[in-house]
Amino acid sequence: MNEESRETMQSDHLDDSAPATAPHHEAPPQPVEQEHRTADRGEQGRRGELVELSATLPGTERAGVGANGPTGRPLPDFPVPAPLTSHGPARIIAMCNQKGGVGKTTTTINLGAALAELGRKVLVIDFDPQGALSVGLGVNAQGLDVTIYNLLVERGHDIRDVIEHTRTPDLDVVPANIDLSAAEVQLVGEVAREQILARVLRPVVDDYDVILIDCQPSLGLLTVNALTAAHGVVIPLECEFFAMRGVALLIDTIEKITDRLNPRLHVDGILATMYDGRTLHSREVVRSVVDHFGDQVFHTVISRTVKFPDATLAAEPITSYSSEHSGASAYRQLARELIARGGAA
């Protein structure tokens, strides 16, 4: 093939391919940076939608005074109470629920610390043989010769000698250890056995503004003692369906004790704990509790967070361990709400 024929063939090939591409006016490929910017704008848009959605979900930290809180009711203003000019007599509050793992000990520690921040003198009673309250406040109860157990079953002890001071100012504790598990058996034969704790606490009632009793997860004789000694009951309730089932039984027990042993006993409130506003289940449990118990349910709700076990491991309340955390803010609000309701001085 000569040079002239080869050039003619190449020219024909180019002419055939030209019409195939000429009618198409496709946009040039988008630069990589511009693609990223477009994706970022889409991601930001989705994030903005999520932020708007979270603002409408119950249980988010965005709810303010007057807006609907996690319980679905308008959130009242709980002002900081005026300082006290004197201390005592104490109002005794039992932290009670026969189901375990609902936040009784966590609430006792952190509510006590929040009340102490408000200038109240607070005494917490470890009334659970597991001794978790004592450990959570940095007290090694296993090494103590005298605990709440000895005050209950032995004569001649003064509660002032058993009280331990904690690192939190104005927050003291009466510790317990595994010995307390034997107390129920030993108290069975005692006269007025349901009123023994009330007798034990009597000498220090005028020294404190609030006494919180961390009850064991049962409705046995120790819990009956706590309810007989108390003025009020706070019922921590985990935001989980099975936790709801025992509340009616507990309320029935409280009513019997009010009728037969302690006419002054009053339910201060039901506290929703371990709440997760991202789950429909938590929101439905809170809604159901409010439907059944109405204003007995605290407006304050305690959300689930890893900071609570972290603070327990550090043996201090969350109000000092992580003062700015939302969990600390929730317990401070609970303390103000309890005072506003008349549940504390």
From TrEMBL:
<feature type="region of interest" description="Disordered">
    <location>
        <begin position="1"/>
        <end position="77"/>
    </location>
</feature>
<dbReference type="InterPro" id="IPR025669">
    <property type="entry name" value="AAA_dom"/>
</dbReference>
<feature type="compositionally biased region" description="Basic and acidic residues">
    <location>
        <begin position="23"/>
        <end position="50"/>
    </location>
</feature>
<feature type="domain" description="AAA">
    <location>
        <begin position="91"/>
        <end position="266"/>
    </location>
</feature>
<feature type="compositionally biased region" description="Basic and acidic residues">
    <location>
        <begin position="1"/>
        <end position="16"/>
    </location>
</feature>
<protein>
    <submittedName>
        <fullName>Chromosome partitioning protein</fullName>
    </submittedName>
</protein>
<dbReference type="Pfam" id="PF13614">
    <property type="entry name" value="AAA_31"/>
</dbReference>
<dbReference type="InterPro" id="IPR027417">
    <property type="entry name" value="P-loop_NTPase"/>
</dbReference>
<comment type="function">
    <text>May play a role in septum formation.</text>
</comment>
<dbReference type="InterPro" id="IPR050678">
    <property type="entry name" value="DNA_Partitioning_ATPase"/>
</dbReference>
<comment type="similarity">
    <text>Belongs to the ParA family.</text>
</comment>
